[in-house]
Amino acid sequence: MASTLGFHIILACYGIAFPTIVLVAEYIGLKRSDEVAMTLARRWSQALGVLVAVGAVTGTVLSFEMGLLWPGLMRRYGPVIGLPFSVEGIFFFLEAIFTGIYLYGWRRLRGWAHFWSGIPVAVSGIFGAISVMAANSWMNQPGGFTLRAGRVVAVEPWAVFFNRAAIYEMPHMLLAAYMVAGFGVAAVYAVGFLRGRRDRYHRLGFAIPFVIAAALTPFQIFVGDTAARAIAADQPIKFAAMEYVTHTARGVPEYLGGVYSGGHVYVGVALPDLDSLLVGFSPHTKVIGLDSVAPVDRPPAPTLIHLSFNVMVGLAFLLLLAGLWALLVWRRHRALPAHRWFWWLAAACGPAALVAMECGWIVTEVGRQPWVVYKLLTTAQAATTNRGVIDSLSAVIVLYAVLGIATIAILRLLARHWRAGDEGESAVPYGPPSEHHSPLAGEGA
Amino acid sequence: MTAEVVGAILIAVLTLYAILAGADFGGGLWDLLAGGDRRGRAPRTLIDETITPVWEANHVWLIFALVVFWSAFPTAFAAVMTAAALPLWLAILGIVLRGAGFAFRKEVEGLHWERLLGAVFALSSLLTPFFMGTVVGAVAAGKVALDAQRTTLATWTSPTSLLIGGLFVAVCGYLAAVFLVGEAIRRDDDRHERYFRRRAALASAAAGALSLAALAELHHSNHQLYHGLTGRALALVLLAGACGLAVLALLALGRSRGLRPLSALGVAAVVWGWGVAQYPTLLPGTGLTLANGSAPHATLIALIVVFAAAVLLVGPSFLLLFWLHGRRLLESEHSSHDPERVGWR
Ligand code: HDD
Ligand code: HEM
Ligand code: HEM
Question: pTM for this one?
Answer without folding.
Answer: 0.86
